[in-house]
Amino acid sequence: MTSAEHLVLIALAIVAAYDVLISLRARSQKGWQPLIVVLVTSNSANVAEGTVRRILWEDLKSRSQGLEIQAIDLGSCDETPEILALLERDEVLSMLSPSDPLGADAVVLNLQDVDGGEGKNVPH
Q: Least packed by Cβ within 10 Å: which of 15, 67, 68, 81?
């Protein structure tokens, strides 16, 4: 994979994170229920932690205090499981298994295979 292709994949992850940030702001302004963001990862070590931290920063700035981050890893072969385990240990997010049901209002952020591998289907 060329570095240009890698940059395109990272840019797509950033655009997806921006959608979550817009949802955060809209919910905080309208007083909605807490937002649940589910990160679906697979070989996402390059963007997983930065995406989580950016979402948390935007939540802090919007003062919504209504955010829960969950993550589902679909069998990463890179450092993604270790990164997610550290974030869970620090109580930044909670881990789900692929068989766990997702809430109807959950925002799913697909961070799969940013290194260009074949992605699996996102659970519904």
A: 15
